[in-house]
């Protein structure tokens, strides 16, 4: 009961106390993961490893299972089989969404999700890590250090001038950046970014590419994207997902020459439209 | 005295508090100081009617906190109101003592009538004011906590949640109708004499109850206004508008919901406890599903998610109800339904939203 009252954030029985251990150079492990929805295998024996500090792009046709993979990593969907580890020691399948968020995995949704009736600044404040216990929540003030952190993120995502505006009236691209800013406020080790440039102008795409590239190193970043030009501009390593499995993995130029990848993209792509 | 910034920017709220303060001065003066035959005299009946409106307004504020800010459309809040009312009614019953029809020093009349020989265990302690006052908050709070714990943890939301809140209040109504439950069955609790030694029918007691209702409304309003202006308030809005986002930011949504739901139920219980001594009776009819729906309509009429709107809506709709049920009783339910449809279609942000828009364009 007292635990319940003092913690509105993650915690509870399964909360790991240890920080993530990426000493082997790998931050995220997915091994042999499968998910079935009503008999349909959305994810089929998928294995994927994300290195510490890496910027990874995941591509694949519609329905390949990219969003479902993020659902599994973030605890929204529990797989039927397989192992999902964060670092050496943290079994993500034992945790629920808030707990996974708290240990350092942030997620941007495919459809931009910011809290529209709140200002840009309030959205970032909402996402701030370390402010999620009841006592920390029952305040109407921002401490100086918190203000500085928010200012730094505003600067980084280029929304300083918009800080006092309602998130609902931002342009589409600005909402996407605000959502990325919210992830940064969580101070995650791993960012999962689902289709960040859908609907963006070329100039906005360029800024987003700069932003994501600047995050790699400090964080691991997994970007799901359909736009090949954008993928080319940011990725060193690309994973192609198809029918819930990894079809190929490597540098984009090599993949574009890979007959299996061409088959999936051009074959299905032409058939689909 | 410094007004904190969260209140300073709340002009509608300050206006509401000013109105309540003015009422607290004017109403007692017009009742106690103006001669009974003077046209400005306020009868005890009117004072009590106003006090009732204030209790409804507090109930509406508690509904708005969970519906307007957290997106939980509770169609069962009248159950918490009624529970608070029953808790205080039990205290009032025990104050009757040997003055009941049967003259039993301990047992309320209805228990004697049922041939009960001793007080059920759950009536123990209710002869103490402090205990009853505690239970006024604890009983609805606990019920809401347990209910919320199960409902929110199973991620029941939207229409399904609304339906089970209706089922909750309906089930309680049926339970309280049963004589064996020991709450007076059909007739409920009534024939109250006094509270803390003050006779309930005296004008002075009625004035005090009115003042307490105004104070409770002001306090409940301030508590909710403060809550929604804290960080927790923004978490509530996030849960309302983008629950998965709140979860993936690391908030334990079901805990937040459970706690705020329970807090809201306590406010509703307090409102019910102040209501019962003013109307002089509490019976299972207060659990009727329609009562909870009415409370939601008050909030919708006044303007959801504004808190002040809840107060405005509760007072206006109940004033209309008092007037209509006197003039054309059969019409009331149709009027209420029509009002709800009209507000939903024409005034989605309620009267307060309308005024704000006027203010913005002027
Ligand atoms: N909750 C669910 N219930 C049933 N089927 C689902 C569910 N979630 C995903 N699917 C199915 O699983 C498959 C993979 O979906 P997913 O959203 O992961 O694809 P995606 O690669 O993200 O596609 P897109 O590029 O269109 O976003 C699709 O066929 C989808 O219909
Ligand atoms: Mg997707």
Key structural traits:
heterodimer, A: 273 residues, alpha/beta, Rossmann fold, 6-stranded mixed beta sheet, 11 helices, disordered N terminus, B: 362 residues, two-stranded antiparallel sheet, two-stranded antiparallel ribbon, 4 strands, binds adenosine-5'-triphosphate, binds magnesium ion
What does this structure look like?
The complex is a heterodimer of chains A (273) and B (362). By secondary structure, chain A is of the alpha/beta class. Chain A has helices spanning 2-6, 66-73, 97-102, 120-127, 134-137, 144-157, 172-185, 202-215, 228-234, 252-257, 259-272; strands at 26-37, 40-51, 55-59, 81-86, 90-91, 105-108, 190-194, 220-224, 237-242, 245-250. Chain A has one domain: Rossmann fold, CATH 3.40.50. In chain A, the strands form two sheets. Chain A has a six-stranded mixed beta sheet, with helices on both faces. A four-stranded antiparallel beta sheet of chain A has the order 2-1-4-5, with helices on one face. In chain A, α8 (202-215) links the parallel β7 and β8 (220-224). In chain A, α4 (120-127) packs parallel to α7 (172-185) and α6 (144-157) crosses α7 (172-185). Chain A is globular and about 55 Å long. Chain B has one domain (5-361). Chain B contains 15 helices and four strands. Chain B has helices spanning 5-8, 11-32, 44-69, 77-96, 109-113, 129-153, 158-177, 203-229, 231-241, 243-248, 253-279, 289-302, 308-327, 332-346, 350-361, and strands spanning 189-190, 194-195, 198-199, 281-282. In chain B, the strands form two sheets. Chain B has a two-stranded antiparallel sheet with strand order 1-4. Chain B has a two-stranded antiparallel ribbon with strand order 2-3. In chain B, a hairpin with a 2-residue loop joins β2 and β3. In chain B, α13 (308-327) crosses α15. Magnesium ion (MG) binds next to α2 of chain A.
